[in-house]
Structure formats: structure tokens, C-alpha cells
Amino acid sequence: MALLTGSLPRIPLPQPAGTGTRYQEPPAVVALGGGHGLSASLAALRLLTTELTAVVTVADDGGSSGRLRRELGVLPPGDLRMALAALCDDTEWGRTWRDVMQHRFKSAEHSEGSLDNHAVGNLLIVTLWELLGNPVAGLQWAGALLGARGQVLPMATVPLTIEGDVLTETPDGRLRTETVTGQSKLAAVGKDCHVNDVRLIPADAPACGEALEAIELADWVILGPGSWYTSVLPHLMLPQLRDALCRTTARRVLTMNLATDTKETSGMSAADHLAVIQRYAPEMRFDYVLADPGAVEDRGRFEQAAGRLGAQAVFGKVGTLGGLPVHDPLRLAAAYHDIFGGSAEHAHA
């Protein structure tokens, strides 16, 4: 894989207006999620602050992470690895180690070796966990290797399992309910199915203490984007983490996806996504909900749904120019910049 050249610019953050605020320069930001959605958020936020903490879901049970989880009984390292890669130092050293961490072994043709499709970073992280006996310390050492701008923490100290009830319409028009267990299976239920309910197993798993502390001390908390039921919602389903998010004095931002009608959110609008948040965490309040106008079918209904969460809806073009449902780091950073600087009302479509 060729190394990237050049560097992304840091965006200076204006000091919030008024006196007596507790915001620091740079602000302390906690971003929660998993997979590519969290990576997109981190790629933007790292342009605004060095006081950045990623809190990552630990329910992945597919691919390299799932194999290591089953064979060694460890936290699934894949989403944690991706978050570390998103925070790597923007130097030749950092980019080289990012590429090493993201590299996957490929077995020879017609061979299925034990290392096939394992990510090097997953193996490195698990090695550090075994040597140090502490998941947080292992991630700190991995972050030091990459020169990570910020820290990466698991949302829980034990692996989690996501289970959901999926509704499927039978050929004769009746609804059939099937229980689907596992993040990888739930995320791929299909366009003809509807996720009706999700649960975490164990339901009362202990949250990572360092993550709870980071949320308590944060100036801003960012939830999303990401797979709604399997990367975003789990953070609000873990009791200790949800309580910390509700109690924190930090301001809260919910970042919407660029595509709403995915396999696990078939038939759902952007407003429906917000209704899911309200259903599972009715006590949770946000200050802002950030959405690309192209992903909102009914702006009035969406603003009403945001209002029920206590939030102001903020619209801004945050997707890439190619039309794919992928967040552009600079555009997303600019949107966060406006929100952090107190000028969110000026964000425009």
C-alpha cells in the first residue's frame, strides 16, 4: 500500500463567546461509535483538538476480530484498531505504522491458512493485551507506536453480544419474528427485514472506567455516525455508559448517517433514527443533531424529532463530492467547528 503524502490542515477553533465558560483550548472531546463511522468522526475531530478520546463498541463478532474473540476470549480488536489508525500521527512514521496496523494477511491461492484475513493490528493489540494484562494499557502502547493524536478506549471491559428481533413478512403477508444473535448477522439482515428490538448481552456489563471518566471531564461528546443499531445505539444501552452520558456537563452532538435505508435500518427515515434513540434512552438529551440535508427526506419532521431529544437540528453538506455515503473529513470538521464555536445556527445546506 502506497504511503499518503502531505498533511491535513489543523483548523483553529474560536473561543466560545461569553465569560465563565469551562471550555479549554483545545476542547476535550469524546467520540463514541464503532467501525467506519467512528473513523470518519475521528478524522474530522483530530483537525480541531488534540484532547480527543474515542470510546469504541466491543460487540464485533465477524472476521478477524470475531476469530480472535472466540479463540482467545479477548475483546474484539478490529474497531479499536480502526480508531487508532484514524488518530495516527500525520508523519511518515505514523502513516507507515497505520498501514502496518491495517494490513491483512492473504493466503496463497487455493489455501486457507490460519492467518488468512487477519489484520496485523488486531494481532499486535491482542499481543499487548496478553503481555500487559490490561486492555487500556495495551491500547495506550499501540497508540504510542502510531503517535496517535488522542486515546482509544473500549466501551466495556468484557466482550458484548448484540441480539435483535427481526420482523420479516412472509409470502402470505404475515409477519414472522426471528431472533438474530451477533453484530455481523444483525448488520446484514437484509432489505426485506425490519429490526424491531435489540439487546446487549450481558445487559449489565461493566463499562470501561477510563471511558466514564473521560465523559465526565469532556467539553463535548459526539455520538455517531455509524451503523445505527450495532455501532451507535449500544453506547446508550450499557447502563453505566448511558448514565455517564446523561450526567455529564459536556454538550452533546448526535451525528447522522449519510444513508438511512441500510440493511439494518430498512425503510427507516432520518426522523425514525432519532425515534430509535428516544425509545431506547428516553432520558438522553442532545444539544445538536448534525445531518446532511441530502439524507433528510422531511426536514420539518426531522426537526420535530430532534426537538423531542432536546436538540437543535443543524444541516450541513458533510458528504464527499463523489456522491457515496461517506463523510468528508474537512467538511465534517467544518460543521463541528461551527457547532463548537457557537455558530451552529449559521450552518447551511
From TrEMBL:
InterPro entries: CofD, CofD-like_dom_sf, Gluconeogen_factor. Keywords: Cytoplasm. Required for morphogenesis under gluconeogenic growth conditions. One of its GO terms (biological process) is regulation of cell shape. PANTHER family: GLUCONEOGENESIS FACTOR-RELATED, UNCHARACTERIZED PROTEIN YVCK-RELATED. The keyword Cytoplasm applies. It comes from Arthrobacter mobilis. The keyword Cytoplasm applies. This is Putative gluconeogenesis factor. It is found in: Cytoplasm. Gene3D superfamilies: CofD-like domains. GO terms for molecular function: LPPG:FO 2-phospho-L-lactate transferase activity. HAMAP family: Gluconeogen_factor. GO terms for cellular component: cytoplasm. Belongs to the gluconeogenesis factor family. Residues 1-24 are annotated as: Disordered.
